[in-house]
Amino acid sequence: MTENTFLIVGLGNPGREYRDNRHNVGFMLIDRLSVRLNARLTRVQAKALVGSVNYEGNKLILAKPQTYMNLSGQSIQGLARFYKIPLENMIVAHDDLDLPFGTIRIRPGGGPGGQKGVASTIERLGTKDFRRLRIGIGRPPGRMDPSAYVLQNFAQSDSILLSEILDRAAEAVLTFVTNGLDAAMNKFNGEIQTN
């Protein structure tokens, strides 16, 4: 039996000052998966922090591009080529202003929706047809500039729901790996139900 290889990329900005930003929720997901799967991101490859782990007969490549958000496509293109990953075995996790906080949405492809890391990835791969895991961060309050909003840290009051979102998103990625895109979309698209 040959194992399938999956590339799971979380988008974010490198550096301690960005670590808890809304824009870094993709990195946070990769960190959550790393803990859950006991994987370590110890290699630097194609301008990304990379780790690999086996999960139910599949090889998972976990990656956090270190190029800064708007150049993420360089790193993703390099990794996809190196590991010869078919597009259907790649998923890119990122923040999404158009989804309310507490919502995740898995999609087979689509436009960048203003997300510069996704735009860079589309440009470098030459296609919009790669899987996305969109993690809602909501719209900025009032007239706040969206680019300032995404670079703010999550509020302390958001921490419990954020943890639940990351757990749910991690479960969605693993469902995508083992049962496919449709199963993951059917089970996980939507809002977390809070009691």
Explain the overall architecture:
- The protein is an alpha/beta fold and 195 residues long.
- It has a single domain, classed as 3-Layer(aba) Sandwich (Rossmann fold).
- Helices cover 35% and strands 24% of the residues.
- The chain is built from 6 helices and 8 strands, in the order E-H-E-E-E-H-E-E-H-E-H-H-H-E.
- The chain has helices at 25-37, 72-82, 116-125, 146-150, 159-179, 181-188, and strands at residues 4-10, 43-45, 48-55, 58-65, 90-96, 103-107, 131-136, 190-191.
- It has an 8-stranded mixed β-sheet, sandwiched between helices.
- Helix 1 packs across helix 5 (159-179) and helix 2 (72-82) crosses helix 3.
- The chain is globular and about 50 Å long.
- Count structural domains: 1
Note the beta-strand portion.
Answer: 15-25%
Low-confidence stretches: none
Rounded mean pLDDT score: 94
Largest sheet: 8 strands, mixed
**CATH fold-level assignment:** Rossmann fold
Radius of gyration: 15 Å
Envelope shape: globular
Helix percentage: 25-40%
Number of strands: 8
CATH architecture descriptor text: 3-Layer(aba) Sandwich
Secondary structure: elements and pairs:
Blueprint: E1 4-10, H1 25-37, E2 43-45, E3 48-55, E4 58-65, H2 72-82, E5 90-96, E6 103-107, H3 116-125, E7 131-136, H4 146-150, H5 159-179, H6 181-188, E8 190-191
Parallel strand pairs: 1-4, 1-5, 5-7
Antiparallel strand pairs: 2-3, 3-4, 6-7, 6-8
Helix pairs in contact: 1-5, 2-3, 5-6
